[in-house]
Amino acid sequence: MEAIHPQTIALIRKLESIAHLTPEETAALQRLPLHLKTVAADQDIVSEGDTASECCLIVAGFACRYNITAAGKRQILSFHISGDIADLQSLHLTVMDHSLGALIPCKLAFIQHDDLRALMRAHPRLGDLFWRDTLIDAAVFRQWVVNVGRRPALTRMAHLLCELLVRLRAVELVEDHAFDLPVTQADLADAMGLSNVHVNRVSQELRKLGLIAFQGKTLRVLDWEGLKTTGEFDPTYLHLAKKDAL
Amino acid sequence: MEAIHPQTIALIRKLESIAHLTPEETAALQRLPLHLKTVAADQDIVSEGDTASECCLIVAGFACRYNITAAGKRQILSFHISGDIADLQSLHLTVMDHSLGALIPCKLAFIQHDDLRALMRAHPRLGDLFWRDTLIDAAVFRQWVVNVGRRPALTRMAHLLCELLVRLRAVELVEDHAFDLPVTQADLADAMGLSNVHVNRVSQELRKLGLIAFQGKTLRVLDWEGLKTTGEFDPTYLHLAKKDAL
DNA sequence: CGGTGATTTGACAATATTCAAATTCGGTGG
DNA sequence: CCACCGAATTTGAATATTGTCAAATCACCG
User: Fold this and answer.
1) What residues have CB less than 8 Å from A23, skipping those under 6 apart?
2) Which residue range or ranges hold the HTH crp-type domain (chains A, B) (predicted)?
């Protein structure tokens, strides 16, 4: 009998945010064999060009996928939080076309592709759910294309913060409209396709508008409706199952 | 016995570009029930907010997925060509978070979700292949984030043209480094997050550099190596099975 | 406290946008 | 076959947004 892994709690919470799980499915997820690991801040978890035979579940921390252009500029492609399998696509695209890096120290749990495949064979609905998860991933990429391509800097930043709040709330990491945002303005700049200087100015403006406030590394949303309006934010693209309090 | 549908040739060619198909799989694809339809230029095929129960195979033409921002600006998210199932994601994300529109008159073949599900049940490898296809879709979105977020306009346009050439060549729509590009500069602008005026200037520069030439609506790549270099183009992210002549 | 990294500020430059008008292209009808 | 029409492309000038560089201040951690 395999052990029950407490690290899967985050994963189960995440999957429950996008679909319903049966007790059998939950139990099967809890029995997934895991290889635990911690990585320091600014370390690559998987690098562009690598051939993957396992997927990386973020148990705790804050990670991102990114690419470096020929000109040496970094573009962050997505942020990943507790419960995310950040490189689920490696199941069918074994060579990495981007890197996965830790933005702060992270607790990780690696799952062998073979174990995932066995799980999906035994529980086809979980297979569909994992597929759905990668499709939501893609929906987020699409919104980022819109954000970076067509929204001015202030709107862009508001939108990104809205997305983070909703995603973090889905896995119960938001309390009273406040959450940990343990990244630098330079990281945010690389996510939004802006310079760090400009992010700083836009961040100040969001604060002057009374929409947000920083208390150290925790971000408090002071005016959720205002932030959503400023960010033109519509959470449909996150395809959450529980649509409460959006 | 179901009929064999010639419209599936494009789909089969496309799928063969990203994986190998067995004769049985090919035969099963050819028997897929199709609803044929044609749409005029600038018509929506599926609109944001719609609930989908079928997927749209592009048999011929040129389509795009797009979003309109609150400020009324359009961001094109992807271009779709012969052989693409442009909204395969609707299989697991039934409400559309973006629209699918025809850029020129298109021949379409709609496939019911139920028929696709039956096909995948009978041929699990095809299920994996469709999943893989949506993952490549996501990989393209990621590259577009990089393109729009971190590459200057000239590089951005070169990269987009490289991508189109490689994708079109994979379905045998490129002859002698030339292909049909039946879209306006305004369409390209909306794909790259630029203004139409700037696209015009950048297009002129690519021509002055001797990298490309237009003959009406057909684009001829005069210097493929140069265009790849200018566009910082690495086709890995397209995850093609046949890597010849990249 | 001291030092390192993050944030903030200011001045200036570069890139891209907007607006408006001119030109070219492609198709259509006389 | 040519004239004409609307759409697409091209051009120019002025403007806006964002980037770059450099320095100053702030904040956290040992």
Assistant:
1) none
2) 151-225
Is B69 in contact with A150 (Cβ distance < 8 A)?
Answer: yes
Burial profile B145-184: b = 16 or more Cβ within 10 angstroms, e = fewer:
bbbbbbbebbbbbbbbbbbbbbbbbbbebbeeebbbbbbe
* Lowest mean per-residue pLDDT among A1-5, A61-65, B44-48: A1-5
Model pLDDT, residue A242: 80
Question: In chain B, which residue's Cα lies nearest the Cα of A97?
Answer: B237
Look at A97 and B239 and tell me if their CB atoms are within 8 Å: yes
Determine the topology of domain A8-140 in CATH: Jelly Rolls (2.60.120)
The architecture (CATH level 2) of A151-238 comes to Orthogonal Bundle (1.10)
Cβ within 8 Å, pair A139-B89:
yes
Adjacent-strand bridge partners of A80: A63
Q: Do domains A8-140 and A151-238 have the same CATH topology?
A: no
Angle between helices B8-18 and B23-30 (to 10 degrees): 150
Q: Which residue has the tokens 């609707």?
A: B90
Question: Could you say which residues of chain B have pLDDT below 70?
Answer: 1-2, 244-246
Contacts of B131 in chain A (CB under 8 A): 92, 131, 134
Domain spans of chain B, in order of start: 8-140, 152-238
Chain segment B204-225, per-residue pLDDT in tens: 999 999 999 999 999 999 999 9
CATH topology of domain B152-238: Arc Repressor Mutant, subunit A (1.10.10)
